[in-house]
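Protein modeling request. Please complete all fields; requests missing the sequence field cannot be processed.
Requester role: graduate student
Desired output: 3D structure, token encoding
Chains: 1
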Amino acid sequence: MSTPFYVSPQQAMADRAEYARKGIARGRSVVVLQYADGIVFVAENPSRALHKVSEIYDRIAFAAVGKYNEFENLRIGGVRYADLRGYTYDREDVTARGLANVYAQTLGTIFSSNGEKPYEVELIVAEVGPEPEDDQIYRLPHDGSIVDEHGSVAVGGNAEQISTYLDQRHRDDMSLSEALKLAVASLSRDNNGGERSLTGDQLEVAVLDRKRPQQRKFKRVLGTQLSRLLDEAPAGASGSDAADSGAQEPGSGAEDADGSGESGASKPD
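Delivered output (269 residues):
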């Protein structure tokens, strides 16, 4: 009868972490940047059906990389948590910090469990505040730790190289157009330092716009509005003008809702 091999707990955890990191690195990157009037999410994602960026609640959005079915389960769980907490207490009691803590507990439990493989996901939870200093951005790696970010953050793909590029160029007072162009430029860089071309059709873009008069601050940026921001908006355009705060223009390509039909701020069923 063969004797089973002994693996130390430290080695087992290191192996699980390496497994998760490799799975996450195979995905296309997502970047999140603060700009003058809010927070912009930009993902390399040609799919119009499978979202990497989604609304969670009034002022809170979620972005993820890795295995879609795994982070979609987490997104749905976050929506349900936000709905229940907002209904039981008050909508103001639903915060990105509270949601990040819930995700951290879930990911940490799964990562340390011997009965299942770790989730191959990395999450970003962001909340836009009344003023730029009130914005909150949290990054949650596969092991359930929480990293409090400011300014810009990248996950998935060559995130380390992208983060370095963003850190050198990002400013908190950027307009939406400037922030979007910087995000696209960072995503266009490959591991060898070269650049490739990314078009609007290859991007998923959304904003949390603090200037919107509605309670809900989340909006997708699509179609002609995205093209205008990428190609035509002057460098000095204000974030609020570009984000089209309030009523959207006919045919602008902007979506108020996530489109998933499951959000704490969605219309009644």
